[in-house]
Write a structure and sequence with these properties.
With 711 residues, this protein is of the alpha+beta class. It is built from 23 helices and 27 strands.
Length: 711
């Protein structure tokens, strides 16, 4: 029986462009959806912009536009990313839509009728200037534990204490600077702690709908263990707020996290109206499967609130919620502000093949909740070796002989064991694709490609072409290679849809489906002339991807990543000082007594200096001046290549504290990605002995801890 699938990915927040994490998730879901369609299953694949909430309201206000105008502008950007990476959503919608308003209010009314909502007064900080209640992120003050200034309302980044906003000393609103007032407002709650909700969730989370890691985490929450306890959910916000009004509650709006997942249904309903599909009937069909792909940071909402809301409002509950990890770059957590991210749009703009990235991401994904690391060197090696050296190589070595010597016709010879093995592999590869273990699927496919190449190497068609009387053998060998190439293309098609379409055109065949694994090109079938299908990755393209384009001096004040390049060449040799703009009011000649250009205190404040502990120090093969340092800065570890080899033995550095520039834009080197700069002193003056003074790492006084800011 063919399956009926309703598939979604997490909704991106509509206050900014896509980042590489979005693209990774969409590629994962798209590969799975394409595989299902090749199986002949009915699949409806939708997403939408998550358009509501205070951040969007405030950003729109700052830009002088309405929230709707901001959301439309961001929404207009989506197509270039989705088309660029061949991500085939059937519908893209917005949570700021009539469908979402109708569905959200309907679900709320049904939950209220079921006795699962209530109200109670909540005391919150209120900004008297902005006239609005403040979320934690909009409140700062002095840490109640260590006294550090300018700390947010939930945790201190200096001493790592966790607290509530009302514990802050001398709190102020980050929106207006005003001292907030404590006010009480009536809030609406969803009673997730109700025994019938808990009983349902225990059954739902323990029924193979979730990966084991996710199911165990949900079980912890349901039992009141781990990092969060199961509690009732505050589902309301007070005006002013950009969102959906709560019925019969003037001035109250649904908290964005209530209506955001309902946006899955809203987008599908919008799509159904366009296609003439019975929305309610499709979801009511017991055969319909509802599947969500999400990141591990939002499992609390998707494995507790979301299924409970649907269950007790009488809607279809999800069949599966598939969770993936984060994406890092050379081991560093993605950070737009530090430049340790990959811009998907830049990737496309500099002409990199989108299917290189689709293949690389798929090759590193499995069915577990594991982080995926983008390593530039590994990316080049894997794409060039697998796609060009193994897969494309088969057609490029054999297709020309068929075109030039045999008019492009296929000849059926005797039985070929490798062709038989490729055909017999279809069921196992399908099982692996179904389980979302894409990395394993691609390893299986490339192992088959290795066998095909070994077969071609043994047959040596380039030598057969030179030998009289070997025409039939040459025709058979090249025909068999093309048959094998077709089967490999079939198995790669969910991951490489555009390349597969080009191969289908080259072979002169209809679009491949999974059932085609059981057949071969018939005797006498004619293929088209071979044209090069894919180029190798050029390392210069990776350099361009990670290189931050220079900015004009007039714009430099607005570019934190650029301004953060202030530094001395005695730091990490992976960075060089950039020309700095003249200080405001200082003119061209403004300079310090030492002759260096003067900077303002605001410019200096943009440099994020941190205490760092050298966890590991290593020699770098092939580098005369560099040491590779692994630095602990409290919240994470960074890799820095520092030009201090002439002055330090790595063994003497481990465990030492030093100072690093933490917000310096990373730089890709042939040895890896350098994620900052350590500070050192050096000079040209020679001492009394006639020797140069050398290089001296800067170090804080005893008692300093990794991650502390240097001010």
């Amino acid at each position: 029986m063919k399956r009926k699938l309703f598939v979604t990915t997490a909704l991106p927040y509509a206050n900014g462009s896509f980042h590489i994490g979005h693209i990774m998730e969409y590629i994962q879901a798209d590969v799975w959806v394409r595989f299902q369609r090749m199986q002949g299953n009915e699949v409806h694949f939708v997403c939408a912009d998550d358009a509501h909430g205070a951040p969007i309201m405030l950003k729109a206000e700052a830009e002088g536009v309405t929230p709707q105008q901001l959301v439309r502008r961001i929404g207009a950007e989506r197509k270039q990313y989705l088309d660029g990476f061949h991500i085939g959503f059937d519908n893209w919608h917005s949570t700021d839509s009539p469908e979402n308003t109708e569905l959200s209010q309907d679900i709320y009314r049904k939950l209220r009728a079921a006795g699962l909502t209530y109200t109670k007064p909540v005391e919150q900080f209120y900004d008297p200037v902005k006239g609005m209640f403040l979320a934690d992120r909009y409140i700062k003050g002095e840490c109640p534990k260590c006294g550090a200034k300018d700390q947010y309302g939930d945790a201190c980044e200096v001493c790592s204490s966790v607290y509530s906003p009302t514990d802050l000393k001398n709190p102020y609103s980050t929106l207006s600077g005003a001292a907030p007032e404590l006010k009480t407002s009536e809030h609406y709650f969803f009673k997730l702690s109700d025994p019938k909700c808990v009983a349902f969730l225990r059954e739902w989370t323990g029924n193979d709908r979730l990966q084991s890691q996710v199911a165990n985490k949900a079980k912890e929450w349901l039992e009141g263990k781990g990092d969060r306890e199961l509690g009732d959910w505050d589902i309301s916000r007070d005006a002013p707020y950009f969102g959906i009004p709560i019925p019969d509650a003037p001035g109250k709006y649904f908290y964005v996290w209530l209506d955001a997942p309902i946006g899955y249904l809203a987008s599908f309903k919008n799509y159904c109206a366009k296609k003439g599909i019975d929305f309610e009937g499709f979801l009511a069909d017991p055969q319909t499967e509802q599947v969500h792909f999400i990141g591990k940071d939002i499992i609390y909402f998707h494995t507790l609130f979301w299924p409970a809301m649907l269950k007790f409002a009488g809607y279809k509950i999800p069949n599966n919620v598939y969770v993936h990890g984060f994406i890092t770059v050379s081991g560093a957590k993605m950070s737009k502000s530090r430049g340790t991210g990959i811009s998907p749009l830049r990737y496309l703009e500099i002409g990199m093949n989108p299917e290189w990235l689709r293949y690389y991401i798929a090759a590193k994904l499995n069915a577990n909740v594991e982080d995926l690391d983008f390593n530039p060197d590994d990316f080049v090696a894997r794409v060039n070796s697998d796609l060009i050296g193994k897969y494309i190589n088969i057609a490029s070595r054999c297709a020309g002989f068929l075109s030039k010597r045999f008019s492009g016709t296929i000849r059926i010879g005797g039985q070929n064991a490798i062709i038989g093995k490729l055909q017999a592999s279809a069921a196992e590869i399908a099982r692996i694709y179904e389980s979302r273990d894409f990395g394993r699927a691609l390893r299986e496919i490339m192992a088959l490609a290795d066998e095909v190449n070994a077969h071609v190497d043994r047959a040596k068609p380039w030598e057969l072409a030179k030998q009289p009387g070997e025409e039939d053998r040459l025709h058979t060998v090249c025909s068999e290679a093309i048959q094998m190439f077709r089967l490999l293309t079939l198995y790669l098609k969910p991951t490489l849809p555009r390349l597969a379409a080009e191969v289908e055109n080259f072979l002169g065949i209809a679009p491949l489906s999974w059932s085609d694994a059981g057949s071969l090109l018939p005797d006498g079938h004619r293929i088209n002339d071979y044209k090069h299908l894919m180029a190798r990755v050029d390392e210069k393209q990776l350099d361009a991807l990670f290189d931050i384009p220079p900015v004009e001096p007039a714009k430099a004040q607005k570019k934190t990543a650029e301004t953060a390049k202030i530094g001395s060449q005695s730091g990490s040799s992976s960075h060089r000082p950039s020309p700095q703009p003249s200080p405001p009011g200082g003119g061209e000649g403004a300079a310090s007594a030492s002759g260096a250009t003067m900077i303002s205190i605001d410019e200096f404040a943009k440099v994020d200096l941190r205490v760092a502990k050298i966890v590991k120090a290593e020699h770098v093969d092939g580098a005369d001046k560099l040491l590779k340092l692994t630095l602990d800065i409290g919240s994470e570890q960074r890799t820095v290549f520092a030009g201090i080899k002439s002055a330090y033995d790595p063994a003497t550095l481990e465990g030492r504290l030093t100072i690093m520039v933490a917000n310096l834009a990373p730089r890709k080197m042939k040895f890896g990605l350098s994620q900052g700069m350590v500070l050192a002193a050096s000079g040209d003056q020679k001492g009394a002995s006639g020797e140069a003074p050398g290089i001296f790492l800067l170090a804080p006084d005893s008692g300093a801890l990794p991650g502390m800011k240097v001010k």
